[in-house]
Amino acid sequence: MAKESINRLPSLFVYSEEMARFDFGSDHPFKPERAIKTYDLCTRYGVLNYPWMSIVDPQPIEPDLLTVFHEPAYLELLRRASRGEVSLEMLERGLGTEDNPILRGIYEWSIRAAGGTRNALKKILDARAQAAFNPLGGFHHAFPDHAEGFCYINDIAIAIKDALRTFPDLKVAYVDFDAHHGNGVQHAFYEEPRVLFISLHETGKNLYPWSGSENEVGRGKGKGYSVNIPLEPGTDDEVYGFALESIVFPLLKAFSPPLIVAELGADALISDPLTHLKLTNNAYQKAVRGIMEVCPKILALGGGGYDLYRTSRCWTLAWSILNSVEPADEFAGLVGGMMFGPEMEVGSLYDHPYESKGEIKEKAFKEAERVVASLREQVFPVHGL
């Protein structure tokens, strides 16, 4: 219990049951209902009932803010698609693909997700909140002129660009723990030294979006401010921890940001059906605790995570860590105590440790060591390390 934190600035849990029930299709991997499961699990474990916590209903972002990143022509096509219209031009912009189907109401849904992210960030910058979590946000693959990777509107790029317009001297660290490279956000800030972009992800050699090499380090004034850590299939908590300690935490400390935006995509977990990393939520805990030590002002976002139950457990732990509170299951031992994962001990959110073995582990560690050495040579000097 964190009684000493009662007088702290508010923490915002951005949540809408209506949005969480939005359906991308029975065969589509992206399930917004993860937010419901996370909310329910946070409630069950007593980590949403502290006096500094608020549940915030996401409101639509102002339409003029969308164009700080997105092209007006693309936005108009998205609005038309949201009304049920279909055209070849939409397909050229990534609308109507298997990943990004044309869905009635998708524009309205997406601008609420973006509004939740932007408004939470604004409250942190205005000192009206210390931390926030938007499990309905984190669409890091959307580009200015097209949709891709389940992402239609890039709430992250919009929120950060808007913040930089408002506070020209602001520095923002963006850390992406999703298993997929945060290509849309990297594109937004590839030449921007005020934003330190760090992405840990499964190597693009065998996973969408096929990018995120350690040699993608930024351009112009932004050179050295884009940092990619591609990881081999089979990467476990130990290898991930090595990457965190060797690259992520030292760079964040050197950059010393007053604000961190963190994509907490949970699709690097061992049971995720779309990826090949082998993390447990112990690695995510290490990641969240580590960035908090650098800066407690954090906007956390959902992103990926396609094992719904493991994702909700991971995000419940992340919310607990962001608020320095300890989860306790009031229903341990009762019927239904195993509902958030059959391998989970009753009354526990925590995964059992897992370690990759043999050639898989050896290759993962060897490749991580190579990437770390490359980044230390390319990026560390820029930051005085």
Order of helix and strand elements from N to C terminus: EHHEHHHHEHEHEEHEHEHH
| CATH superfamily label | Histone deacetylase domain
Oligomer: single chain
In which order are the strands of the major sheet placed?
A: 2-1-3-8-7-4-5-6
The total tally of domains equals: 1
Helix count, DSSP H or I runs of 4 or more residues: 12
Based on the model shown, name its key terms.
385 residues, alpha/beta, Arginase, Chain A, eight-stranded parallel sheet, globular
Question: What would you say this structure looks like, in words?
Answer:
By secondary structure, the protein is of the alpha/beta class. The protein has a single domain (3-383), classed as Arginase, Chain A (3-Layer(aba) Sandwich). The chain has twelve helices and eight strands. The chain has helices at residues 17-20, 34-44, 63-66, 72-82, 88-92, 106-125, 155-166, 183-189, 237-255, 281-294, 308-322, 358-378; strands spanning 11-14, 53-56, 131-134, 172-176, 195-202, 226-231, 260-263, 298-301. An eight-stranded parallel beta sheet has the order 2-1-3-8-7-4-5-6, sandwiched between helices. β7, α10 and β8 (298-301) form a beta-alpha-beta unit. α6 (106-125) packs parallel to α7 and α9 (237-255) runs parallel beside α10. The protein is globular and about 50 Å long.
